[in-house]
Every structure is written in C-alpha cells, then in structure tokens.
Amino acid sequence: MTTAIYTASATSWGGRTGKVVTSDNKLDLDLSIPKDMGGDGGPGTNPEQLFASGWAACFHNALKATARQSKIDVSESAVTLTVNLVGSMAAGLDFEVTIEAQIPGADPATAQAAMEAAHAVCPYSRATRGNINVVLSVVTDED
C-alpha cells in the first residue's frame, strides 16, 4: 500500500435514515431518503448529494489546474455535477453523471479540452472511470 498524503474518515449510523459524521467532526449531517426513492423527503441530505458535492469540488480544482496550463481564465467559473441514480432495486442501481463547467469568456473548444484534461486527473473521475457513464459539458459566453 502507498503512503497517504491525506486521509478522510466518516462514520454512518442508520444508513440513509441516520446520520454521518467525519472523524474531525467538521461534517455532521442528518440523512433522509428522498421522496423519489420512496422516502419521506426529510430535512437531511443523502449519499448522492454528498457524492455530487465532493466530486464537483474536486473536479473544479482539477479544472483550475488544467485551465492554468491552457491559459484559460476560470476565475468566474463554476462546476455543477449531477448524479442520477438509475436502475432498480431488483436489477441493481447505478450512477450516471453529468459534469457541467460554466467558463465565461472561454473559447468552447479550449474549454472542452481543459474539461477533458481535468477528467483525466481528478481523483473522483479516475476512481470511477469505466464504472459510471459520465458526460462532460461546457457552457461559455458563446453558448
């Protein structure tokens, strides 16, 4: 096993209707099952929202790094990551993901290349490569 440069740890109690807390207590969240999944749609978050949030932040950081190399200004950029849970309980559930970057003022082809480069280096993208259908989308002023 390689030496970790950072370790994150979280514990869940009660699954989708419980809570999750990180080892440093910086994240302490109640969980609820969305109505779309047969739950009560309570006030808590859910694993898909947490997954989308983590991947969006990680991808945005990777995009900032690849954009610097391509000389793209991403100071006003935003990344939205949409996680769809597809399939059925009987057949199995899977994720489908859309990653959309809003990069005002960027040339669309250059921005798309930066997105693809970010997807190649982002740890979430690398960890899920070949397991999740992912669509990369860029929105610029020219769209």
From TrEMBL:
It comes from the Bacteria. GO terms for biological process: response to oxidative stress. Pfam families: OsmC. Belongs to the OsmC/Ohr family. This is OsmC family protein. It comes from Cryobacterium arcticum.
